[in-house]
């Protein structure tokens, strides 16, 4: 996750700050995830979960404000920030003593903003004409859903995974969830970056680094549009 975040920032360094923030937030999530999974301490669990909420909130902003004009005004980023702060405060207030409340607040707030992103992605996909971009969106969604399925299997069937028949090893689906989430996070940021550049008439195209890592390239910059 850290690597794809760094790659996203480096390969899209000439794009708007919103996308650098989106890719950069993936790095923070990766650092928090390492800290939490390596210690299982509550403060570092917050370092894992809280950045996830803010990361998706940045993506919400990028998806919603994707036109050449500001659609929702200054209140929109302020509202998103307040949503993140309220979620953070409640999670910290719950603390390790009330883990169920913390878990429910995190899951519900995170899933809600993910669904908001999904609704915007559906609209973006519906107006696409480029079949190669459609395929990338299809791969991204399939990767995300598969990773989420792995997380659920590992979370809900942990004992089964540790006691597979015929002496089979635990496939460590939770680890594969992290791999899939990393790929999906990078691809979503990449494709909304492409959508934004297309709406600004910057003639975007997808190129591949080393034949493996896609990134967005633009042929021209629209100097009339000034936005973060």
From TrEMBL:
Q: What is its main location?
A: membrane
Q: Where in the cell is it found?
A: Membrane
Q: Which spans are transmembrane here?
A: 19-36, 42-62, 74-94, 100-121, 133-153, 173-194
Q: What membrane topology was assigned to this protein in its record?
A: Multi-pass membrane protein
Question: Which keywords has UniProt assigned to this entry?
Answer: Hydrolase, Membrane, Transmembrane, Transmembrane helix
Which Pfam family, any one, appears in the UniProt record?
Answer: Ceramidase
Homology family = Belongs to the alkaline ceramidase family.
Q: What is this protein called?
A: Alkaline ceramidase 3
Native source organism of the sequence:
Linnemannia gamsii
Q: Which gene encodes it?
A: ACER3_1
